[in-house]
Amino acid sequence: MTRPMTIKKRFSTAEKALAAGTLQPLRVWLPATVNVAMFRTQFQDWVAAEQITFENGQAEFLEDECLHLFATLGLTAYLTIYRSKRSSDTFQDGSKAVNRLTGDAYTGISRKLLRQQFSNNYGKYLEFLRTHRYLEVYHYYDMEGLASKGDDPFDVPPTKRNYSYEPKGHKRANTGSYIGMKAGDKGEGHPKHYRLHNDHALEEVVGFDAIRPVELGAKYSYKAHKHYAKEKAQILRKRAGHSVHRQRLAEYVDTLVRNVDYVGMEAWLRATADDVNEMSPVWSLYYADQLRQGQVQFENLCDDFGHRLHTPLTNMVTGLRRFYRPNGNQVYSLDIRCSQFVLAAYLFEYPEQCFQLLTKNGDMDAATVRYVLGTLHAAYQADDKVRRFCYDAVHTDLYATTATELGLPGRSTGKDLWFGAFFSTTGVFAQPKYQLGQLYGSLLTVTSGLNDPLPGSIVQRKLMPKMLQLLEQRLLIEGVAKRLTETYDGEFATIHDSIHTELAGIPYATRAFEAVFAAANLPTPPYKIETTDDNGLETKTLVELVAVIKKLTQPEP
Questions:
Q1: Largest CB tally within 10 Å, which of 38, 136, 399, 455?
Q2: Which residues contact 484 (CB under 8 A, 6 or more apart)?
Q3: What angle separates helix 218-239 from helix 13-20, to the nearest 10 degrees?
Q4: C-alpha dist (Å) from residue 438 to 122, 422, 460
């Protein structure tokens, strides 16, 4: 009797990787109003009816790729709004982080990036998404007839009368991914912008389950992760050009982001009644998920302004950082109390020590540094109220002190007052400057003048924020963090003026911190050691090294 032949199923590379645990299914987030099963059926029917052909993949792979494009164009604007609220309203070049279109939930991606990530099929996917009421395209025309030259796609939109429309891309859809600057223009023009169709539109403030993650299949997940791996490889090539300790800091953050306590974060966010940075908590979870999967990747290990180091952790809401656990352990942080203004006091009071730090390795032009420090020290010597500021900044909680002295509602109000006034130019934040001037005399007149443009120029010099950021990175990155990478084998990260580590790393961090200030011949400022346990209980310890801090005679009120 002949036995029937057993045919073994041949598994794809993606399926093998999934079974071995080396591949995780890609998760994309969609509005809860989207029925994924219906989406897939609609897509299949559309392909059959229109006889659409694709250059690679088939069936589930194509549906997954279309879902991924839909998720990217539908939700990215909300993520941009969320992140911009935690940093600033403008980029370094002065352009708005949240422009008019982003604020209306529109997202535009260049044709080059669309092709790289979604292949040449992207135009066909856009046609499906538009005609089946998943996405809507920004019409670009000013239906109200407002005046516009049509040279800024993020300002008042142009009318058909004064701006020629030229669709580019997938002609069948007549919704190409670009709008030309004028009819017949051969250049790419501006990317088309898309947002969720009204059938699936989201308000900025949404309930936790208004969006939800959906896992995609093995074959498409494999392809998508390869794309993100290429993006990471580009980041790593740029990273290799930086100092060893900055590279190591970025590597530590990579580990923390991948191993985030996602379950704990979700439980905490679901339980919190407050918005996180003015947005519904679900956007924080969405952002964390995008980071850990590598769908959002960014770092700048030495920015052009103040040589600061920027990673996903520096861009993270403070309350969520405790879920990025070094080696899975409870997070501890060490940071200077009111750091920006402690360092500002040092600029006023210790010009020679600061000059050595700021001009080391050519970080800043020596003549400019000498001019600024000379101006600040002259004010320190001439005005006892400026000396009072230096005392309060180092020896008290400046924000709380300000709030108490001015009768403000609380410490956070005092903090907002300082950050608005100190880094602005003359004539801006006039009321806060008047209030603070009652306490600290000519202080803000001097700092505003250093931030002002030169005569005949409109470009703000911003000398105070630049010098403070340079001083911060010389002490914290090139000082404390560098020493830690040499003396401590555990995981840690820097968040501008603080060290993020586990309990075992705190003794190493304190020794490095004190040694760096001693080597710079500067007083070791008061610093805080903070932690939050799994029950949300916060513990804060203030360390004041009385023997090290230069004792000043408190100025007369």
A1: 399
A2: 492, 499, 505, 508, 509, 512
A3: 80
A4: 61, 14, 26
The pLDDT profile of the chain, 557 residues, written as one tens digit per residue, is 555 555 555 667 777 777 777 779 999 999 999 999 999 999 999 999 988 888 777 889 999 999 999 999 999 988 887 777 544 444 444 455 566 677 778 888 888 888 889 988 888 999 999 999 999 887 554 444 444 444 444 444 444 433 344 444 434 333 444 444 443 344 444 567 888 998 998 876 678 899 999 999 999 999 999 999 999 999 999 999 999 999 999 999 999 999 999 999 999 999 886 766 667 889 999 999 999 999 999 899 998 888 999 999 988 888 899 999 999 999 999 999 999 999 999 999 999 999 999 998 887 899 999 999 999 999 999 999 999 999 999 999 999 999 999 999 999 999 999 998 999 999 999 999 999 999 999 999 999 999 999 999 999 999 999 999 999 999 999 999 999 999 999 999 999 889 999 999 999 999 999 999 999 999 999 999 999 888 878 899 999 874 344 443 444 44
At residue 191, the 3 state secondary structure works out as strand
Q: Is 538 helix (H, G, I), strand (E, B) or coil?
A: strand
Strands 211-215 and 27-31: antiparallel
Q: Which residue has the tokens 């040589």?
A: 307
Rounded to whole angstroms, the Cα distance separating 552 from 556 reads: 12
In contact, 438 and 407? CB cutoff 8 Å: no
SS3 content of the chain, % helix, strand, coil (to 5): 50, 10, 40
The answer to whether 154 and 166 are in contact (CB under 8 A) is no
* Residue 530 φ then ψ, to 5°: -125, 150
- How far apart CA 341 and CA 389 sit, in angstroms, is 9
Nearest 10 degrees: Cα torsion 342, 348, 349, 350: 90
Helix (H, G, I), strand (E, B) or coil at 139: coil
Strand partners, 507: none
pTM of the predicted model as reported, rounded to 2 decimal places: 0.84
Q: How far apart are CA 373 and CA 349, in angstroms?
A: 9
Q: How far apart are CA 32 and CA 29, in angstroms?
A: 9
- Six-digit token string for 41: 């059926």
> How far, in Å, CA of 533 to CA of 261, rounded?
13
**DSSP state at residue 479:** I
Give, as one character, the DSSP assignment of residue 312.
Answer: T
* Identity of residue 496: H
d(CA 256, CA 250): 10
Helix (H, G, I), strand (E, B) or coil at 470: helix
Phi, psi of 498 (to 5 degrees): -135, 160
Cα 293 to Cα 226, 287, 418, distances in angstroms = 12, 10, 38
Among 348, 370, 353, 250, CA closest to 300: 250
- Give the integer Cα–Cα distance in Å for 84 and 72: 18
**Per-residue exposure over 327-346, b if at least 16 CB sit within 10 Å of its own CB, e if not:** eeeebbbbbbbbbbbbbbbb
